[in-house]
Amino acid sequence: MATRTDPLTLEVVELIGTVVARYYEEYEQAAAAHSLTGAQARVLGLLSLEPMPMRRIAQKLKCEPSNVTGIIDRLEVRGLVERRPDPADRRVKLAAPTEKGTRTARQLRESLDFAREPLAGLSDADRAVLRDLLRRMLGMEPSA
């Protein structure tokens, strides 16, 4: 597939980059307000959706499992995460948020205005189109 360097494509790429940079900047600020690094906040956010083994966290964050182990260790010391056996395979340890960790993850999500406010200005139909376009860009199946 040929790369596209027409002005419209270049503008879209630049806009996507700007959105991503702003999101990460706000995410880092929100994390710092809870004395967390951005990586710790991302792991806590993932775990607030469902407990998971370190290997899967590493896959989702596209980093080394040893990095995730260090992040989990630091979150565990702060009482935000705990390790527990996987009920499906007791040889596997799951990282899961504690009650305090779940509360902190919710507060982090609620403090991220950048992404939420501009999206609120779009209609449901516009948000659905944007979601579907982003899914297509990522090679994901469209939503039903």
Tell the overall outline.
Answer: globular
Helix content: 55-70%
Average of pLDDT: 89
CATH topology annotation of the domain at 20-111: Arc Repressor Mutant, subunit A
Main sheet record:
3 strands, antiparallel
Per CATH, the architecture of the domain at 20-111 is: Orthogonal Bundle
Q: Helix tally?
A: 7
Computed Rg? 18 Å
Major sheet: arrangement of strands: 1-3-2
Can you tell me the CATH superfamily of the domain at 20-111? Winged helix-like DNA-binding domain superfamily/Winged helix DNA-binding domain
What oligomeric state best describes the polypeptide chains here?
single chain
Strand content: 5-15%
Total strand segments: 3
From the N-terminal CA to the C-terminal CA, the straight-line distance is: 28 Å
Secondary-structure element string: HHEHHEEHHH
CATH top-level class of the domain at 20-111: Mainly Alpha
Low-confidence stretches: none
Q: Which structural category do the helix and sheet elements fall into?
A: mainly alpha
Keywords: DNA-binding, Transcription, Transcription regulation
GO molecular function: DNA binding; DNA-binding transcription factor activity
Pfam families: MarR
InterPro entries: HTH_MarR-typ (IPR000835), MarR/SlyA-like (IPR039422), Tscrpt_reg_MarR-type_CS (IPR023187), WH-like_DNA-bd_sf (IPR036388), WH_DNA-bd_sf (IPR036390)
